[in-house]
Amino acid sequence: MQALLFSFQGRINRAKFWLIHIGIDVAFIVITGLTVGGAALSGDVEAARAAMGTSGAVATLLFIPLIWIGLAASVKRWHDRGKSGWWILIGLVPVIGGLWFLIECGFLAGTAGPNAYGPDPLAAV
């Protein structure tokens, strides 16, 4: 499990890619909801501001591993497509980059059989 979530080596198929990214999205929503919701429910404006500062720092510390996991999963998905993990930088291109990433990693099948990045992840199933 640790290699799946934190390593940048190897390949993952579309199903694992989507599960990881949906899990990350849910975690972001929960963490943000707890951070903002907890501060808003306090009723006292000054107490809410103080709570936002503290809980915001905690949320930031929780976001760092989630971002790492998302990057690792994306790099492994590029590997499954037979491309270098550096292709993740395509997401920095405005408009077209995010769309390209979504189509390539989210919808197109990976390379059949082994490639330079490892064995076919579906062959192990």
SSE layout and pairing:
Elements: H1 2-6, H2 14-40, H3 45-80, H4 96-107
Descriptive notes:
The structure is a single chain. The chain is mainly α and 125 residues long. The protein has one domain (2-107). The protein contains four helices and no strands. The chain has helices at residues 2-6, 14-40, 45-80, 96-107. The radius of gyration is 18 Å and the shape is elongated. The two termini are 15 Å apart. The mean pLDDT is 87.
- Unreliable spans are none
Number of domains: 1
String of helices and strands = HHHH
The largest pleated sheet is described as: none
What portion of the residues fall into strands of 2 or more residues? under 5%
Work out the helicity level: 55-70%
Mean pLDDT across the residues is 87
Q: What gyration radius follows from the Cα positions, in whole Å?
A: 18 Å
Helix-and-strand structural type: mainly alpha
How would you describe this structure in keywords?
125 residues, mainly alpha
Report a brief summary of the structure:
By secondary structure, this protein is an all-alpha fold. Helices cover about 65% and strands about 0% of the residues.
